[in-house]
Amino acid sequence: MPGAAAQPAIGELAARARALNAERRIDREAIFDLKMQALERLWASFGDDPAFDRYRQQQGTALQEFAAYCALAERHGKDWRRWPEAYRRPGAEAVQRLCNDDPRVRFHAWVQWHLDVQLERASREVRVFHDLPVGFDIAGADGWCWQDFLASEISIGCPPDGFNLDGQDWGLSPFIPSKVRGALYRPFIETIRAMLRHAGGLRIDHVMGLFRLFWIPRRLGNKGGTYVRYPIDELLAIVAIESQRAQAVIVGEDLGTVLPGTRELLAAQKMLSYRLLFFEDEPPDRFVELALSGVTTHDLATIAGIWTGAAAEHARSAGVTPNEDGLTYLKNKLAKLAGLAPDAPVTDVVVAVHQALGRAPSRVLLATLDDALAVREQPNMPGTTSSWPNWSLALPKTLEEIREEPLPRQIAAALRR
User: What is the pLDDT, as a whole number, of residue 367?
Assistant: First the structure.
C-alpha cells in the first residue's frame, strides 16, 4: 500500500501478521483486525486522488451500496435483517443520508479501490482465473443489496450422490428466476462483469446452476428439496457477451450430476468443460480439448489423502459418511495411472499422476498447491459447516518456501507444454 513503508507502526502490525504463520489454522478474525488497523492508519493520512474519484464514479451504485453495508455492519452486526428498520433497505432515506454524510462509507470505498488497483497489477503478470460461487449469503452484503431477487428461506445444495451419501446443503440462497429476469438480469450482469474486470478467465462454480438448482427449504436441512429451473439461454448469452467484453476464458464446472445435453450445449458456446482424473473413465490423452482438466478439486480428497487413507479418517472425524468403496477405487486408479505399487511414496505418486495429466490435450491444465505439497487434508468438506475447518487450513509452507520446494517444480515440469 502506498505510504505503508514510511509508518513504523504498520511494520509492527506486519510482524504480528507474519507470526500467525506459525499456526496451521487460519485465524481470519485476527488477520482482519490487523489489516483494518493498518488500513485505518493509511486512511488517516489520505487526502484525495483523482483516480479514486474516477473509480467511485465508474462503479456507481454497486460500490456505494457495498460500502454502506460495510459501514452499517460495523455498527449493527453482519446480519442486516437484525438492523434498525430504517437501514434494512439500501434505497431507504436513512441509508442515502449515510452515503452522503458518513466518512466511513468513503473509507470502505477506498479499500475496494486499493483492492482493485492491486488486482489489476497482479493480472498483468499472469492470466488470473476467478471463481464465481453459486448462491449468496442471505445475511451479507449481496443479501442486503439484492434482497428483492433472492429466495431468503431457501438454501441450495444437492441430493445424495456417490461421493456424498448424505447430500449437501451449502447454506447459500439463490436468485429467484422470475425476479432477476424481471430486473433485466441487472444483478447477474453486475456479478459477471465485476468478476471479469481484471480476469483472464472465470470458473463458474456448479455451472448446472445456470440450468437448475436444488432448492432446500431451510427448515428441512439437507433432508428434502426439489430442482428449480433457470432461463439457461438468456444466462448463457449474458456470460458470452461479458466474456467477449473482457476477452476472458469461461470454464463451466460441470462435475457430478448434469442434465443430458448440458456438455454439448456448453461446448457449442465454446465454454470449457471441467474434467478430473478422479471422475473420467478415459485416460488423460483422450480427454476433450475444450476443457480445463485436473486431478481433484477443493471439494474432494487430495492425492495424499486417498493414497494414505487419511481421506476416509477425515470424513468420519467431520461426521460425514465416507464412501469407502469409492476411495478404494480412486486409490487403485491412481496406482494404475502412476504405474506404481500401493506402498509407493506419496511424492512419487503425485509426480507420476501429473505426468499422466500432462498428456491431456485440454486447453488448460490445473494442479493444486495442496497436491504440490502432498497435503493430506482437503480444503473443504462438502456437507459440513463447523465440524471441519473449511477454507481455514493453511498450506504447510509459505509462498516464499514453496518457490524452493522440489515437488511443485516437478509438477510444473510435468504439465509444461
Answer: 96
Residue 277 lies in a domain: no
Nearest to 189 by CA among 151, 117, 237: 237
For 259, half-sphere exposure in the C-beta direction (CA atoms, 13 angstrom radius) is 18
Nearest to 42 by CA among 119, 134, 114: 114
Q: Is residue 82 part of a domain?
A: yes
Tell me how many domains the chain contains.
4
The count of C-alpha atoms lying within 13 angstroms of the C-alpha of 180, restricted to the half-sphere facing its C-beta, is 24
* Adjacent-strand bridge partners of 228: 213
pLDDT means per 10 residues in the chain (417 residues)? 92 95 93 97 94 96 97 98 97 97 97 96 92 93 96 88 72 94 95 94 94 89 83 96 96 89 94 94 95 94 97 95 93 95 96 97 96 97 89 93 96 94
- Domain assignment of residue 99, given as a range: 59-125
Judge whether 152 lies within some domain: yes
In terms of domains, do 105 and 145 share one?
A: no
What is the distance between the alpha carbons of residues 254 and 204, in angstroms, rounded to a whole number?
Answer: 9
Q: Is 354 helix (H, G, I), strand (E, B) or coil?
A: helix
Nearest to 364 by CA among 273, 234, 257, 298: 273
Q: Kindly tell me the burial class for residue 374, based on how many C-beta atoms sit within 10 Å of its own C-beta (0-12, 13-18, 19 or more).
A: buried
Distance CA 214, CA 133 (A): 15
First to last CA, the chain: 36
Judgement on whether residues 361 and 406 belong to the same structural domain of the protein: yes
In single-letter form, the type of residue at position 66 comes to: F
> 342 and 241 in one domain?
no
Per-residue confidence (pLDDT) for residue 163, from 0 to 100? 61
- Residues paired with residue 275 on neighbouring β-strands, in sequence order: 293
What number of CA atoms fall less than 13 Å from residue 303's CA on the CB side? 29
